[in-house]
Amino acid sequence: MDPQRIVIIGGSAAGPKTAARARRLAPDAHITMIEAGENITMSSCGYPFYIGGRFDERRHLLETPTGILRDPAYFKTNKDIDVLINTEVTRIDRWGKNVELRNLYSGEVSTLPYDRLMISTGSTAIMPPVPGISLPGVTALKTLPDADYIRKVRDEKQVKNAVIIGGGLIGLETAEALTVSGIDVTVIDLGNQVLPFLDWELAKLVEKQCLSHGVKIRLETGVEAFSGVNGHLSSVKLTTGDEIPCELAIVAIGVKPNNALAREAGLKIGENGGIRVNKYMCTSDPNIYAAGDCVELVNSVSGMRDYSPKGDQANLQGRVAADNMIFGDTVSFPGTIGTGIGKIFDFAAGSAGLNHFSAEAAGFDAVSILNSGTDKPGFMGSKSLISKLTVERSTHRILGYQCVGKGDVSRQVSEGAMAISANFTVGQMLSLDLPYSPPFSPAIDHFIASVHIMDNKLSGLIKGIGSREVWAQKNGGELRFIDVRELDEFEDRRLGIGEILIPLSTLRRRLKDIPFNNDTPIVCYCLMGLRSYEAALILTQAGFNDVRVMEGGMMAWPFPREK
Amino acid sequence: MDPQRIVIIGGSAAGPKTAARARRLAPDAHITMIEAGENITMSSCGYPFYIGGRFDERRHLLETPTGILRDPAYFKTNKDIDVLINTEVTRIDRWGKNVELRNLYSGEVSTLPYDRLMISTGSTAIMPPVPGISLPGVTALKTLPDADYIRKVRDEKQVKNAVIIGGGLIGLETAEALTVSGIDVTVIDLGNQVLPFLDWELAKLVEKQCLSHGVKIRLETGVEAFSGVNGHLSSVKLTTGDEIPCELAIVAIGVKPNNALAREAGLKIGENGGIRVNKYMCTSDPNIYAAGDCVELVNSVSGMRDYSPKGDQANLQGRVAADNMIFGDTVSFPGTIGTGIGKIFDFAAGSAGLNHFSAEAAGFDAVSILNSGTDKPGFMGSKSLISKLTVERSTHRILGYQCVGKGDVSRQVSEGAMAISANFTVGQMLSLDLPYSPPFSPAIDHFIASVHIMDNKLSGLIKGIGSREVWAQKNGGELRFIDVRELDEFEDRRLGIGEILIPLSTLRRRLKDIPFNNDTPIVCYCLMGLRSYEAALILTQAGFNDVRVMEGGMMAWPFPREK
Predict the structure, then answer these.
(1) Contacting A residues, span 542-561, partner chain B, CB-CB under 8 Å
(2) Is the overall model pTM greater than 0.90, yes or no?
(3) Contacts of B270 (CB under 8 A, 6+ apart)
(4) Distance (Å) from the C-alpha of residue A465 to the closest C-alpha of chain B?
């Protein structure tokens, strides 16, 4: 017999998906969804775009694709699902199989029995325990009331300066939203880069874009205190001793899973604080499932449990959980691969799987390459793509793929994510049949070109060097640098790291002019990498024994240039 | 010992890629590339965009991504590759291992010995043997001179009316190019749809877009003759008896592989006329390889040999062939999966794998679903995506994926192509971790949503019906139709096929008003499909025994509407 009473705690993403799917699978069940807040099924990933005025109608955050408001009445009339808003679950009684409820307006207390329970309590913004954190003007951007508050102060035009604490995706999206609203924004972060899902050199390119749009960024910097005047935020004191005057501070340093109910009910909690679930999204109690931001999952690339809450994953987990709640444990959730993407101004950044740093941290012997290219042929108005592909040295299996740029990053990261899900090796990706036509792709898709470069590196055809190592040895280290672009390109823009210019088009006939001996370590570079690769082959054939190519070329150069 | 003399016949796509790769693998080899035409490495897929004025600099068709002209001098100085242009290979002497050359200007004849030979002779436009085919004003769009000619007459503004014979991708891209140039265009095609890589109902949506931009389309119509006045084309006579006055006719009914040299040399030719190669791109002569438009390959989904020449595949094949020419047969080309994409006006259309029609033709028991949706959340300014997913009934393995719409079709088709390459089943695709953020995707990616609909269909949760069957039974057949959208939507736009309107939001309380008995076959539909799916569940639960959902909803409706 199907379970007849299904209770769902939480009405944001995983909860409503579970409820809707359960209704479809069990037309006769009594389904109740309980939400502590005022709203349900909020498109919380849309908050930064609402704040920045990309759209002005708040109700769009709460609508179906055809514009119908998803409120309790909608769930009742369309899906026969009872939704209790402004209602808190205060306790789960696993032995009695019921939950205790409290209406947050009336204070009324009641109990609701269940056959199957779903915990989708979500997460809460982490707020650092520093003085002044409770001052008006200091907020997170996690809930719809948070978004309402920030949109309100933005619309009132009372804010001239804002500080954002945290340079992750939400921090940078919010930095853009406030900047385009005419507010002066400083982002501070404890780490040495923005967007920790990217490796350092790609994050640096995102940082450059932010700077070029007027956002100030202070890395390796924390908050000491929030200071107020007349009971309202007036500045942020930094760990460096500096103080930034501001009327708004947004804390975006991450979220923590809401695990209190589960913990108090004696359910197993993971090391990262998320509720532990098995592959069926079932907790340590066979009648209780959990999904979304409150759970922790296995990263299927690293094999390790991690906590990386995502709205799309919450929905997919909710669907799997509903199947298993209704029919018993039959459908598996495969685990996350940590895919993410974001857009900051006109620059996109995305990643799937492990970046090089996290691959090594997970114990892999990882090999990476950088690839600079474009999303289309030049004659179609191409835009930049810079990506990093990481594979396991011994197996050549793809571990991760990152891509940033003004071009079509979304397609590239999707390809990377699919390749990781398929557990592809380099050899299996060399000749993929991907959609090609000039409006959409160059003749060799950028992701495939990245695979080709990796193949060249693994087979020893190309010997790469990263920009950080080049930067460390600029102007006087052991390395010698040859810029192989043409003279006009060099006049227009150059690194100024002690390089000499020998255009590839002249290299074969100027081999005797090269002022280095055969054992000098030489680094070639060009704009994107293709010409330096050719130059390295020519030099190697000419007897130079240690020729490397600066990966990604000048397009991926994260440091200052002479010109 | 490495082969020392490598000769490559053909300088378009596969040839130059083979030459460049061979140079990298064999720095000491003598590499010669022979091209009968004036130019090499032409971006022929860009011709329609050049013709339409998307860009005006012809040289962009012949440049590297950094703007360097790829001419024989470029190949010599950068790659030490000898390129002979305006030079025809007249014979391959397999026993002597040399090729006979003729300079097309001087008429001079010579021979060139090889250790390994690459045949990348490309393809030629098929011209129907009808009267008047040689009249000035009748042309293909296959070669750069063809493109030059069409661009010239376009720029001279002498053409008011043009007829395009063939409604494939090149035909429609050219139709757009001429239309945006102010020319009145009629496309005629023998088949009953445009874009044969799509199933009929998706092709119909592309056709509607073309019509809405003023392109006339005549299907199931052929050319009887081209007529001239004063020795120049003046009209096209159709098989229907009609005659269309025009000053330009472009024949785009397909291409045939240039196999004459290979055939005369006794190499094995396939049933489709393409040179037969094994998975190493090697012909029936172990010293002769072939790649690009002149070969035929195994479609790795159907397992059948087919001829589907593509520019990107030519490049990838050239890379594989070079590896095997130099190192012996070590690298395999996995075969094509028939991926293609194109953009016509602001509407894109793409496909990977087999469409439903071709899947059945290949002997599969295929199941398909249609999915209408969007590429982003509504509040980000979403655009339409309509797709069709086809799987094998017994194994649930993906066979094909098609997508059309104004939205980001490119990412969707890439996902489909990757899934097909990975040989994924429906179960393996339900919870893919794809990049999600409002600028790029709805919370559940459109491709994954398509997989969910397929899962629902395979598990019996949803019973679909195609729009063709609905159209066949409109206004008086056995089926009864319920439009479950809201009243304002119905007032705004409706099918008019004899439907009644019962909005989903009122359905549960109006069940008793439904004027059908329990065994009446009922079809529900809405705009995209979600509401009709919910309605079908409600009706089924209420005792109606035969309730179906019109797949893809009104967004995928290819027929005329009442309103």
Answers:
(1) none
(2) yes
(3) B276, B296, B305, B307
(4) 19
Please check whether residue B99 is in contact with residue B117, taking contact to mean a CB–CB distance below 8 angstroms.
yes
Distance from CA of B107 to the nearest CA of A (A): 32
Q: Testing the interface with A: which of B57, B82, B401, B433 to mutate, by most A Cβ within 10 A? A: B433
Task: Name the CATH code of domain A464-556 (choices 3.40.228.10, 3.40.50.720, 3.40.250.10, 3.40.718.10).
Answer: 3.40.250.10
Contact assessment for residue A211 and residue A205, using Cβ atoms and an 8 Å cutoff = no
Taking the alpha carbons at both ends of chain A, their separation in whole angstroms is 74
What single letter denotes the amino acid at residue B334?
Answer: P
Q: Give the architecture (CATH level 2) of B138-253.
A: 3-Layer(bba) Sandwich (3.50)
**Which of B:368-387 have CB within 8 Å of A?**
373-374, 377-380, 382
* Best to test chain A binding among B71, B75, B312 (most A CBs inside 10 Å): B312
- Decide: residue B239, CB within 10 A, 0-12 exposed, 13-18 middle, 19+ buried: middle
Q: What part of B 5-44 touches A (C-beta under 8 Å)?
A: 13, 23-25, 27-28, 43
Whether B49 and A378 lie within 8 Å, measured CB to CB: no
For chain B, report the end-to-end CA distance as a whole number of angstroms: 74
Cα distances from A262 to residues A259, A278, A286, B547, in angstroms, run 5, 15, 13, 41
- Taking the domains of chain A in order of start, what are their residue ranges? 5-123+256-327, 138-253, 340-458, 464-556
> Could A438 and B337 be called an inter-chain contact, meaning their C-beta atoms sit closer than 8 Å?
no
Residue in chain B nearest A419 by alpha carbon: B418
- Edge-first strand order for the sheet with B116-119 is B82-84, B30-34, B5-9, B116-119, B288-290
pLDDT in tens, chain A (563 residues): 556 999 999 999 999 999 999 999 999 999 999 999 999 999 999 999 999 999 999 999 999 888 889 999 999 999 999 999 999 999 999 999 999 999 999 999 999 999 999 999 999 999 999 999 999 999 999 999 999 999 999 999 989 999 999 999 999 999 999 999 999 999 999 999 999 999 999 999 999 999 999 999 999 999 999 999 999 999 999 999 999 999 999 999 999 999 999 999 999 999 999 999 999 999 999 999 999 999 999 999 999 988 989 999 999 999 999 999 999 999 999 999 999 999 999 999 999 999 999 999 999 999 999 999 999 999 999 999 999 999 999 999 999 999 999 999 999 999 999 999 999 999 999 999 999 999 999 999 999 999 999 999 999 999 999 999 999 999 888 999 999 999 999 999 999 999 999 999 999 999 998 999 999 999 999 999 999 999 999 999 999 999 999 999 999 999 999 99
B150: alpha, beta or left, given left = phi > 0 and alpha = psi -120 to 50?
alpha
In chain B, which residues have their Cβ closer than 8 Å to the Cβ of A64?
530
Tell me whether the CATH fold assigned to B5-123+256-327 matches the one assigned to B138-253: yes
Closest partner residue to A352 (CB to CB) among B43, B336, B435 is B435
A13 vs B424: CB contact, 8 Å cut-off?
no
B434 and A CB contact within 8 Å: yes
Which CATH class for the B5-123+256-327 domain?
alpha beta
Asked if residues A120 and A18 have their Cβ atoms less than 8 Å apart, the reply is yes
Which residue on chain B is closest to A314 by alpha carbon? B443
Task: Say yes or no: B169 contacts chain A, CB-CB below 8 A.
Answer: yes
Partner residue facing B65 (CB), from A316, A528, A537: A528
The residue written with tokens 């460390």 in the block is A472
For domain A340-458, the CATH architecture is: 3-Layer(bba) Sandwich (3.50)
**B433 and chain A in contact, CB less than 8 A:** yes
Q: Which of B24, B54, B348 is facing A537, going by the closest CB pair?
A: B24
